[in-house]
Amino acid sequence: MKTNFLGYEDKKNQKLCILCWIAYASTYICRLNYSAVMPELEKLNVFPESQIAAISSAFFICYGLGQIVSGMLGDRISPRYMIFGGLAVSSISNIAIFMVNSFFPFITLWAINGAVQSMVWTPILRTAGDYFSPYEREKFGIHIASTVPLGTLASYGVSLLTLLVLPWKYVFLVCGIISLSASVYWFMGTKNIITESGKTKLSENEAKTPTLSYKKMIGLMASSGVFILTISIVIQGTLKDSVTQWIPTFFSQQFSTGTGTSLALTMILPIINVTGAYFARFANKYLRNELKTSMLFFAIAAAFLAILNFFGNNIILSLICMAGVTNCMFAINVMIITMVPLHFSRYGCVSTVGGILNAVAYIGCGALNMVAGSILEKSGSSWSALFIMWLSLAVIAVVVTGIAVLPWNKFLKKEA
Protein backbone atom coordinates (compact mmCIF):
# COMPACT_ATOMS: atom_id res chain seq x y z
CA MET A 1 0.00 0.00 0.00
CA LYS A 2 1.50 3.34 -1.05
CA THR A 3 1.17 6.08 1.56
CA ASN A 4 2.44 9.65 2.06
CA PHE A 5 4.72 10.81 4.86
CA LEU A 6 1.96 10.82 7.52
CA GLY A 7 0.82 7.34 6.51
CA TYR A 8 -2.34 8.24 4.52
CA GLU A 9 -3.33 6.88 1.14
CA ASP A 10 -3.90 10.21 -0.61
CA LYS A 11 -3.18 13.93 -0.15
CA LYS A 12 -6.79 14.79 0.70
CA ASN A 13 -6.81 12.41 3.64
CA GLN A 14 -3.48 13.77 4.80
CA LYS A 15 -4.85 17.32 4.62
CA LEU A 16 -8.00 16.24 6.46
CA CYS A 17 -5.88 14.78 9.25
CA ILE A 18 -3.96 18.07 9.57
CA LEU A 19 -7.19 20.10 9.61
CA CYS A 20 -8.71 17.85 12.30
CA TRP A 21 -5.47 18.15 14.28
CA ILE A 22 -5.49 21.96 14.20
CA ALA A 23 -9.20 22.13 15.03
CA TYR A 24 -8.96 19.90 18.08
CA ALA A 25 -5.66 21.36 19.33
CA SER A 26 -7.22 24.83 19.25
CA THR A 27 -9.92 23.70 21.70
CA TYR A 28 -7.18 23.15 24.30
CA ILE A 29 -5.90 26.68 23.77
CA CYS A 30 -9.34 27.99 24.80
CA ARG A 31 -9.73 25.40 27.58
CA LEU A 32 -6.51 25.20 29.61
CA ASN A 33 -5.93 28.95 29.51
CA TYR A 34 -8.22 29.02 32.56
CA SER A 35 -5.94 26.58 34.36
CA ALA A 36 -3.02 28.87 33.49
CA VAL A 37 -4.63 31.89 35.18
CA MET A 38 -5.93 30.01 38.25
CA PRO A 39 -2.87 30.91 40.39
CA GLU A 40 -3.38 34.58 39.45
CA LEU A 41 -7.07 34.45 40.39
CA GLU A 42 -6.15 33.04 43.77
CA LYS A 43 -3.16 35.33 44.38
CA LEU A 44 -5.15 38.47 43.51
CA ASN A 45 -8.19 37.21 45.50
CA VAL A 46 -10.41 37.53 42.43
CA PHE A 47 -12.43 34.48 43.57
CA PRO A 48 -12.15 32.05 46.54
CA GLU A 49 -10.87 28.48 45.84
CA SER A 50 -14.39 27.01 45.89
CA GLN A 51 -15.55 29.43 43.15
CA ILE A 52 -12.36 28.87 41.14
CA ALA A 53 -13.08 25.12 41.25
CA ALA A 54 -16.77 25.72 40.43
CA ILE A 55 -15.86 27.64 37.24
CA SER A 56 -13.61 24.78 36.18
CA SER A 57 -16.31 22.21 36.96
CA ALA A 58 -18.93 24.20 35.03
CA PHE A 59 -16.82 23.73 31.90
CA PHE A 60 -16.33 19.99 32.46
CA ILE A 61 -20.00 19.27 33.24
CA CYS A 62 -21.37 21.32 30.32
CA TYR A 63 -18.76 19.81 28.01
CA GLY A 64 -19.73 16.34 29.18
CA LEU A 65 -23.48 16.86 28.82
CA GLY A 66 -22.91 18.48 25.44
CA GLN A 67 -20.97 15.41 24.27
CA ILE A 68 -24.12 13.28 24.50
CA VAL A 69 -26.14 15.67 22.32
CA SER A 70 -23.23 16.33 19.94
CA GLY A 71 -22.55 12.61 19.67
CA MET A 72 -26.09 11.94 18.46
CA LEU A 73 -26.06 14.94 16.12
CA GLY A 74 -22.55 14.10 14.91
CA ASP A 75 -23.76 10.90 13.21
CA ARG A 76 -26.36 12.92 11.28
CA ILE A 77 -25.01 16.44 10.59
CA SER A 78 -22.01 17.44 8.48
CA PRO A 79 -18.86 17.60 10.66
CA ARG A 80 -17.76 20.67 8.71
CA TYR A 81 -20.50 22.88 10.15
CA MET A 82 -20.52 21.36 13.63
CA ILE A 83 -16.80 21.80 14.18
CA PHE A 84 -16.79 25.35 12.77
CA GLY A 85 -19.74 26.36 14.96
CA GLY A 86 -18.17 24.89 18.09
CA LEU A 87 -14.80 26.56 17.54
CA ALA A 88 -16.28 29.94 16.60
CA VAL A 89 -18.61 30.23 19.61
CA SER A 90 -15.87 28.95 21.95
CA SER A 91 -13.60 31.73 20.66
CA ILE A 92 -16.29 34.36 21.17
CA SER A 93 -16.94 33.12 24.73
CA ASN A 94 -13.25 33.53 25.57
CA ILE A 95 -13.12 37.00 24.07
CA ALA A 96 -16.26 37.97 26.06
CA ILE A 97 -14.60 36.90 29.36
CA PHE A 98 -12.09 39.69 28.74
CA MET A 99 -14.94 42.13 29.31
CA VAL A 100 -16.56 40.68 32.49
CA ASN A 101 -15.74 41.51 36.09
CA SER A 102 -17.81 39.23 38.35
CA PHE A 103 -18.32 35.55 39.13
CA PHE A 104 -21.76 34.90 37.57
CA PRO A 105 -21.04 36.15 34.01
CA PHE A 106 -17.60 34.47 34.16
CA ILE A 107 -18.98 31.04 35.09
CA THR A 108 -21.82 31.43 32.56
CA LEU A 109 -19.45 32.18 29.70
CA TRP A 110 -17.09 29.37 30.75
CA ALA A 111 -20.03 26.94 30.87
CA ILE A 112 -21.04 28.04 27.34
CA ASN A 113 -17.44 27.48 26.28
CA GLY A 114 -17.63 23.92 27.58
CA ALA A 115 -20.97 23.23 25.88
CA VAL A 116 -19.88 24.41 22.42
CA GLN A 117 -16.45 22.77 22.60
CA SER A 118 -18.33 19.47 22.84
CA MET A 119 -19.31 20.01 19.19
CA VAL A 120 -15.74 19.31 18.03
CA TRP A 121 -14.56 15.87 19.22
CA THR A 122 -17.41 13.58 18.14
CA PRO A 123 -17.62 14.98 14.55
CA ILE A 124 -13.85 14.43 14.30
CA LEU A 125 -14.37 10.78 15.28
CA ARG A 126 -17.19 10.51 12.74
CA THR A 127 -14.90 12.03 10.08
CA ALA A 128 -12.24 9.41 10.85
CA GLY A 129 -14.80 6.60 10.57
CA ASP A 130 -16.22 7.94 7.31
CA TYR A 131 -13.17 9.10 5.38
CA PHE A 132 -10.28 6.90 6.52
CA SER A 133 -9.63 3.22 5.85
CA PRO A 134 -9.14 0.89 8.87
CA TYR A 135 -5.36 1.17 8.37
CA GLU A 136 -5.54 4.98 8.30
CA ARG A 137 -7.77 5.11 11.40
CA GLU A 138 -5.06 3.56 13.54
CA LYS A 139 -2.60 6.18 12.29
CA PHE A 140 -5.17 8.92 12.83
CA GLY A 141 -5.83 7.75 16.40
CA ILE A 142 -2.17 8.27 17.27
CA HIS A 143 -1.90 11.58 15.41
CA ILE A 144 -5.04 13.11 16.92
CA ALA A 145 -3.99 11.98 20.40
CA SER A 146 -0.92 14.23 20.15
CA THR A 147 -3.23 17.27 20.04
CA VAL A 148 -3.87 16.88 23.77
CA PRO A 149 -0.29 17.35 25.06
CA LEU A 150 0.72 19.73 22.27
CA GLY A 151 -2.51 21.73 22.59
CA THR A 152 -1.84 21.88 26.34
CA LEU A 153 1.70 23.10 25.67
CA ALA A 154 0.40 25.75 23.25
CA SER A 155 -2.23 26.95 25.74
CA TYR A 156 0.25 27.26 28.60
CA GLY A 157 2.85 28.84 26.30
CA VAL A 158 0.48 31.50 24.96
CA SER A 159 -0.87 32.14 28.47
CA LEU A 160 2.62 32.47 29.96
CA LEU A 161 3.81 34.91 27.29
CA THR A 162 0.65 36.98 27.74
CA LEU A 163 0.92 37.03 31.55
CA LEU A 164 4.52 38.23 31.33
CA VAL A 165 3.42 41.51 29.72
CA LEU A 166 -0.33 41.91 30.32
CA PRO A 167 -2.98 41.36 33.07
CA TRP A 168 -4.65 37.91 33.32
CA LYS A 169 -7.79 38.92 31.41
CA TYR A 170 -5.79 39.34 28.21
CA VAL A 171 -5.07 35.60 28.22
CA PHE A 172 -8.69 34.94 27.22
CA LEU A 173 -8.63 37.65 24.54
CA VAL A 174 -5.43 36.35 22.91
CA CYS A 175 -6.48 32.68 23.06
CA GLY A 176 -9.92 33.55 21.67
CA ILE A 177 -8.40 35.28 18.64
CA ILE A 178 -6.09 32.31 17.94
CA SER A 179 -8.99 29.83 18.15
CA LEU A 180 -11.20 32.01 15.93
CA SER A 181 -8.46 31.95 13.27
CA ALA A 182 -8.36 28.13 13.54
CA SER A 183 -12.13 27.92 13.04
CA VAL A 184 -11.91 29.92 9.81
CA TYR A 185 -8.98 27.80 8.60
CA TRP A 186 -11.01 24.61 9.28
CA PHE A 187 -14.06 25.89 7.43
CA MET A 188 -12.14 27.06 4.37
CA GLY A 189 -9.81 24.06 4.31
CA THR A 190 -12.58 21.43 4.36
CA LYS A 191 -14.63 23.04 1.57
CA ASN A 192 -13.65 20.49 -1.08
CA ILE A 193 -12.99 17.55 1.25
CA ILE A 194 -16.02 17.04 3.52
CA THR A 195 -19.32 16.74 1.66
CA GLU A 196 -21.88 19.42 2.41
CA SER A 197 -24.64 16.89 3.12
CA GLY A 198 -22.54 15.01 5.65
CA LYS A 199 -22.79 11.81 3.64
CA THR A 200 -19.92 9.41 4.00
CA LYS A 201 -17.06 8.73 1.64
CA LEU A 202 -16.20 5.25 2.80
CA SER A 203 -13.29 3.18 1.52
CA GLU A 204 -14.19 0.99 -1.43
CA ASN A 205 -13.42 -2.05 0.73
CA GLU A 206 -16.13 -1.15 3.24
CA ALA A 207 -19.87 -1.26 2.81
CA LYS A 208 -21.95 1.46 4.38
CA THR A 209 -23.67 0.15 7.52
CA PRO A 210 -27.00 1.72 8.58
CA THR A 211 -26.91 3.54 11.91
CA LEU A 212 -28.09 1.29 14.74
CA SER A 213 -31.19 2.14 16.74
CA TYR A 214 -30.37 3.53 20.18
CA LYS A 215 -31.78 0.39 21.81
CA LYS A 216 -29.46 -1.89 19.81
CA MET A 217 -26.50 0.44 20.33
CA ILE A 218 -27.00 0.39 24.12
CA GLY A 219 -27.22 -3.40 24.01
CA LEU A 220 -23.98 -3.54 22.03
CA MET A 221 -22.23 -1.23 24.50
CA ALA A 222 -23.43 -3.37 27.41
CA SER A 223 -22.37 -6.70 25.90
CA SER A 224 -18.93 -5.33 24.91
CA GLY A 225 -18.14 -4.20 28.46
CA VAL A 226 -18.15 -0.51 27.57
CA PHE A 227 -20.80 0.31 30.21
CA ILE A 228 -18.66 -1.26 32.94
CA LEU A 229 -15.73 0.72 31.58
CA THR A 230 -17.50 4.04 32.22
CA ILE A 231 -16.30 3.95 35.86
CA SER A 232 -12.71 3.78 34.65
CA ILE A 233 -13.41 6.52 32.11
CA VAL A 234 -14.61 8.87 34.88
CA ILE A 235 -11.35 8.20 36.74
CA GLN A 236 -9.23 8.60 33.61
CA GLY A 237 -10.90 11.95 32.89
CA THR A 238 -10.28 13.09 36.46
CA LEU A 239 -6.64 12.03 36.56
CA LYS A 240 -6.00 13.58 33.13
CA ASP A 241 -7.83 16.90 33.34
CA SER A 242 -8.27 17.58 37.04
CA VAL A 243 -4.60 16.83 37.76
CA THR A 244 -3.56 19.02 34.82
CA GLN A 245 -5.84 21.83 36.07
CA TRP A 246 -4.41 21.84 39.60
CA ILE A 247 -0.69 21.43 38.79
CA PRO A 248 0.11 25.19 38.44
CA THR A 249 -1.73 25.92 41.71
CA PHE A 250 0.10 23.02 43.45
CA PHE A 251 3.54 24.38 42.54
CA SER A 252 2.48 27.92 43.45
CA GLN A 253 1.18 26.93 46.91
CA GLN A 254 3.50 24.07 47.85
CA PHE A 255 6.78 25.62 46.74
CA SER A 256 5.89 29.36 46.70
CA THR A 257 6.75 29.69 43.01
CA GLY A 258 5.40 32.64 41.04
CA THR A 259 2.74 32.17 38.37
CA GLY A 260 5.34 32.36 35.59
CA THR A 261 7.56 29.73 37.22
CA SER A 262 4.56 27.48 37.94
CA LEU A 263 3.50 27.63 34.30
CA ALA A 264 7.05 27.07 33.07
CA LEU A 265 7.30 23.92 35.22
CA THR A 266 3.85 22.77 34.09
CA MET A 267 4.86 23.17 30.43
CA ILE A 268 7.41 20.39 30.88
CA LEU A 269 4.56 17.89 31.33
CA PRO A 270 2.91 18.13 27.88
CA ILE A 271 6.33 17.83 26.24
CA ILE A 272 6.75 14.50 28.04
CA ASN A 273 3.10 13.54 27.48
CA VAL A 274 3.51 13.54 23.69
CA THR A 275 5.13 10.14 24.18
CA GLY A 276 2.02 8.74 25.92
CA ALA A 277 0.27 7.90 22.66
CA TYR A 278 3.33 6.07 21.35
CA PHE A 279 3.82 4.14 24.60
CA ALA A 280 0.16 3.09 24.33
CA ARG A 281 0.57 1.98 20.73
CA PHE A 282 3.72 0.00 21.61
CA ALA A 283 2.06 -1.75 24.58
CA ASN A 284 -1.13 -2.49 22.64
CA LYS A 285 0.89 -4.11 19.86
CA TYR A 286 1.74 -6.87 22.34
CA LEU A 287 -1.40 -6.94 24.50
CA ARG A 288 -3.80 -6.63 21.50
CA ASN A 289 -6.61 -5.34 23.71
CA GLU A 290 -7.21 -1.65 24.45
CA LEU A 291 -8.52 -2.41 27.93
CA LYS A 292 -5.58 -4.61 28.95
CA THR A 293 -3.30 -1.79 27.84
CA SER A 294 -5.36 0.73 29.82
CA MET A 295 -5.24 -1.47 32.94
CA LEU A 296 -1.43 -1.56 32.71
CA PHE A 297 -1.19 2.24 32.54
CA PHE A 298 -3.68 2.74 35.41
CA ALA A 299 -1.43 0.51 37.55
CA ILE A 300 1.68 2.54 36.61
CA ALA A 301 -0.20 5.78 37.42
CA ALA A 302 -1.16 4.37 40.85
CA ALA A 303 2.52 3.72 41.57
CA PHE A 304 3.43 7.32 40.66
CA LEU A 305 0.61 8.67 42.88
CA ALA A 306 1.81 6.54 45.80
CA ILE A 307 5.31 8.02 45.45
CA LEU A 308 3.83 11.53 45.13
CA ASN A 309 1.86 11.08 48.35
CA PHE A 310 4.98 10.17 50.33
CA PHE A 311 7.50 12.49 48.67
CA GLY A 312 5.33 15.43 47.55
CA ASN A 313 7.55 17.91 49.38
CA ASN A 314 10.31 17.51 46.78
CA ILE A 315 9.72 19.71 43.74
CA ILE A 316 11.72 17.57 41.27
CA LEU A 317 10.17 14.28 42.41
CA SER A 318 6.71 15.87 42.40
CA LEU A 319 7.20 17.03 38.82
CA ILE A 320 8.39 13.56 37.74
CA CYS A 321 5.43 11.83 39.43
CA MET A 322 2.85 14.23 37.98
CA ALA A 323 4.43 13.82 34.54
CA GLY A 324 4.19 10.05 34.99
CA VAL A 325 0.52 10.20 35.99
CA THR A 326 -0.55 12.50 33.14
CA ASN A 327 1.55 10.53 30.63
CA CYS A 328 -0.27 7.34 31.64
CA MET A 329 -3.63 9.11 31.34
CA PHE A 330 -2.81 10.31 27.82
CA ALA A 331 -1.88 6.73 26.90
CA ILE A 332 -5.23 5.51 28.28
CA ASN A 333 -7.00 8.37 26.48
CA VAL A 334 -5.78 7.01 23.13
CA MET A 335 -7.04 3.52 23.97
CA ILE A 336 -10.42 4.31 25.54
CA ILE A 337 -11.57 7.67 24.18
CA THR A 338 -10.17 7.34 20.63
CA MET A 339 -9.66 3.69 19.67
CA VAL A 340 -12.62 2.08 21.49
CA PRO A 341 -15.29 4.25 19.73
CA LEU A 342 -13.64 3.64 16.32
CA HIS A 343 -14.44 -0.08 16.71
CA PHE A 344 -18.13 0.95 16.46
CA SER A 345 -17.71 2.62 13.05
CA ARG A 346 -18.94 -0.53 11.28
CA TYR A 347 -22.24 -0.12 13.15
CA GLY A 348 -22.65 3.53 12.08
CA CYS A 349 -22.57 4.91 15.63
CA VAL A 350 -18.95 5.94 16.20
CA SER A 351 -19.87 9.57 16.97
CA THR A 352 -22.62 8.65 19.43
CA VAL A 353 -20.46 6.13 21.31
CA GLY A 354 -17.53 8.57 21.32
CA GLY A 355 -19.82 11.28 22.65
CA ILE A 356 -21.14 9.10 25.46
CA LEU A 357 -17.65 8.05 26.56
CA ASN A 358 -16.29 11.59 26.46
CA ALA A 359 -19.40 12.82 28.29
CA VAL A 360 -18.84 10.34 31.10
CA ALA A 361 -15.18 11.39 31.37
CA TYR A 362 -15.91 15.10 31.65
CA ILE A 363 -19.06 15.00 33.79
CA GLY A 364 -17.26 12.74 36.25
CA CYS A 365 -14.19 14.95 36.14
CA GLY A 366 -16.34 18.04 36.76
CA ALA A 367 -17.99 16.49 39.81
CA LEU A 368 -14.71 15.20 41.28
CA ASN A 369 -12.99 18.50 40.52
CA MET A 370 -15.46 20.27 42.82
CA VAL A 371 -14.63 17.65 45.47
CA ALA A 372 -10.94 18.48 44.94
CA GLY A 373 -11.59 22.21 45.45
CA SER A 374 -13.62 21.47 48.58
CA ILE A 375 -10.87 19.20 50.00
CA LEU A 376 -8.23 21.89 49.48
CA GLU A 377 -10.39 24.64 50.97
CA LYS A 378 -11.45 22.64 54.04
CA SER A 379 -8.02 21.14 54.71
CA GLY A 380 -6.20 24.45 54.43
CA SER A 381 -4.65 23.51 51.08
CA SER A 382 -3.44 20.10 52.31
CA TRP A 383 -2.37 18.42 49.08
CA SER A 384 -1.79 15.05 50.75
CA ALA A 385 -5.55 14.52 51.16
CA LEU A 386 -6.07 15.19 47.46
CA PHE A 387 -3.24 12.83 46.46
CA ILE A 388 -4.80 10.03 48.55
CA MET A 389 -8.12 10.54 46.73
CA TRP A 390 -6.39 10.35 43.33
CA LEU A 391 -4.45 7.23 44.37
CA SER A 392 -7.66 5.49 45.53
CA LEU A 393 -9.33 6.30 42.21
CA ALA A 394 -6.39 4.83 40.23
CA VAL A 395 -6.57 1.55 42.19
CA ILE A 396 -10.34 1.32 41.59
CA ALA A 397 -9.75 1.89 37.86
CA VAL A 398 -7.28 -1.01 37.68
CA VAL A 399 -9.90 -3.38 39.14
CA VAL A 400 -12.84 -2.14 37.06
CA THR A 401 -10.89 -2.13 33.78
CA GLY A 402 -9.77 -5.68 34.52
CA ILE A 403 -13.43 -6.75 34.87
CA ALA A 404 -14.28 -5.19 31.46
CA VAL A 405 -11.39 -6.92 29.63
CA LEU A 406 -13.17 -10.25 29.03
CA PRO A 407 -16.37 -8.91 27.37
CA TRP A 408 -14.29 -6.47 25.31
CA ASN A 409 -12.08 -9.32 24.11
CA LYS A 410 -15.19 -11.22 22.97
CA PHE A 411 -16.39 -8.10 21.12
CA LEU A 412 -13.05 -7.81 19.32
CA LYS A 413 -13.20 -11.47 18.26
CA LYS A 414 -16.68 -10.93 16.77
CA GLU A 415 -15.36 -7.91 14.89
CA ALA A 416 -12.56 -9.97 13.40
Short description:
Helix content is 81%, strand content 0%. The protein is mainly alpha-helical and 416 residues long. The two termini are 21 Å apart.
Written account of the structure:
There is one protein chain. The relative contact order is 0.16. This protein is globular. The chain has 16 helices and no strands. The protein has 416 residues and is mostly helical. Helix 1 (11-29) runs antiparallel to helix 5 (103-131). The longest helix has 33 residues, at 383-415.
Radius of gyration: 20 Å
How many helical elements? 16
The shape is globular
* Quaternary organisation of the protein chains: single chain
Alpha-beta content class: mainly alpha
- The helix content, as a percent range, equals over 70%
Question: Biggest sheet, in brief?
Answer: none
Distance between the termini: 21 Å
Number of strands: 0
Order of helices and strands: HHHHHHHHHHHHHHHH
Mean pLDDT equals: 85
What share of residues are in beta strands? under 5%
Low-confidence stretches: 202-208
Helices and strands, with pairings:
Blueprint: H1 11-29, H2 33-43, H3 49-74, H4 79-97, H5 103-131, H6 134-145, H7 147-165, H8 169-189, H9 214-223, H10 226-254, H11 259-266, H12 268-287, H13 290-311, H14 315-342, H15 350-378, H16 383-415
Helix pairs in contact: 1-5, 1-7, 1-8, 2-7, 2-10, 3-5, 3-15, 4-5, 4-8, 5-15, 6-14, 7-8, 7-11, 7-12, 10-11, 10-14, 10-15, 10-16, 12-13, 12-14, 13-14, 13-16, 14-15
